[in-house]
Design brief:
mainly beta; ten-stranded mixed beta sheet
């Protein structure tokens, strides 16, 4: 573990990181990309005595490299911190990678493979997978996630995901996106296993009066009339529509 001259560890506490994410809108303050690193801006880490969330910015690896190599100045980051890109546009964004094969969707206890519309709600695709527009290009995955109150928190449009800045917290670690509604209240854990699988590991979502609850290999669907379906270890393969509600 690295410490500076004041004995401050480079390991930023989780609650401070969350405050930084919330202030920055969950993405790079300069470009808005959602894969980020934490950068002490003013003071720099070597001069910092505390981890002050007001003095730390989110930067994508590319923008971060431009700062550390001094191609860009810290003044550029300070300016962006006043009006972070994600706060301007309303979301952080990045792209999934689905090359070579038709992506599968693991939705709690259900695996949906080779389904152009894995899940449909009230006649509308909740998820949609289209073949490449040009040979050799990626498959195009689209989908929608809401929280337990029906508020949209994450959309995927032809592989580009957008996590909305009005969420309580969005955290991206490696291949996993975690979205929280409140402190210790997780409503979505989404993991990608490129280039072929999207995995919904945890979900508490309400859409059109239907509640979807997923945890590991278990999926529970509650209809507006109160009827409940519980699914585990189910596979839908080569269906035009995998599941319809």
């Amino acid at each position: 573990m690295t410490y500076n001259a004041y004995g401050l560890s480079r390991d930023i506490p989780a609650d401070v990181k969350r405050l930084v994410r919330q202030r920055c809108g969950f993405g790079c303050v300069i470009c808005g990309l959602g894969i980020v690193q934490y950068e002490h801006v003013d003071p720099e880490f070597k001069d910092a005595k505390i981890h002050d969330p007001e003095a730390i910015a989110l930067l994508c690896p590319q923008c971060h490299a431009k700062i550390t190599t001094r191609m860009w100045s810290k003044a550029r980051v300070k300016l962006a911190m006043r009006s972070p890109k994600c706060r301007q546009v309303g979301y952080a964004r990045e792209f999934f990678d689905f090359v070579e094969v038709h992506p599968a969707l693991r939705f709690g206890g259900v695996l949906l493979t080779n389904c152009p519309t894995p899940i449909q709600v009230s006649g509308h695709p909740l998820f949609r997978i289209r073949p490449p527009e040009t040979e050799g290009e990626p498959f195009l995955f689209s989908g929608l996630f809401t929280d337990s109150n029906g508020e949209v928190s994450l959309v995927i449009e032809d592989n580009e995901w957008k996590a909305f800045s009005n969420s309580w917290d969005v955290e991206v670690k490696g291949q996993t996106i975690t979205i929280r509604e409140a402190h210790k209240v997780v409503h979505l854990v989404l993991r990608v296993d490129p280039p072929k699988t999207v995995i919904v590991e945890k979900l508490n979502m309400s859409l059109g009066g239907i509640r979807f609850e997923a945890n590991g290999d278990f999926l529970k669907v509650t209809q507006p009339n109160g009827s409940i379906s519980e699914l585990t270890s189910c596979i839908f393969d080569n269906c035009l529509v995998g599941m319809a509600f």
